[in-house]
Design goal:
This protein has 4 helices and no strands. The chain is mostly helical. It is elongated. The N and C termini lie far apart (44 Å). 9% of the residues are buried.
């Protein structure tokens, strides 16, 4: 039953990631073609609830999606199972989430609050 739930969760996170990825790419192309500098881009993202929700959703979806995919790879190639496999999966998810939140804070958090 856990395998089915993880399978479905990975598919759901893929559905979430697809439009967010396209949106991110579109915004980056717009910014680069518009000649915006990194400072100008950060000036537009810092303190924005919209960008926090956009990239926060992306970070959570990627963390879950990637850790579930790695779980399958670890099981099939290294033969991990049970608690060891669950601990590795949870560790990867926590690590990706931690790094993603750090990046999110760097891009969204207002300068005056740092």
């Amino acid at each position: 039953m856990l395998d089915l739930r993880l399978y479905m969760l990975q598919r759901i996170t893929a559905l979430i990631m697809a439009p967010l990825t396209l949106g991110h790419i579109a915004v980056m192309i717009y910014a680069v073609q518009g000649g915006l500098s990194a400072e100008e881009i950060l000036g537009r993202t810092r303190g924005s609830l919209f960008w926090f929700l956009f990239y926060g959703s992306f970070v959570v979806a990627v963390s879950l999606h990637a850790s579930i995919g790695l779980r399958v790879i670890l099981h099939e190639t290294m033969g991990l199972a049970g608690r060891t496999l669950s601990a590795a999966t949870l560790g990867v998810a926590a690590g990706l989430l931690f790094m993603g939140v750090q990046a999110l804070i760097a891009v969204i958090w207002p300068v005056s609050a740092i």
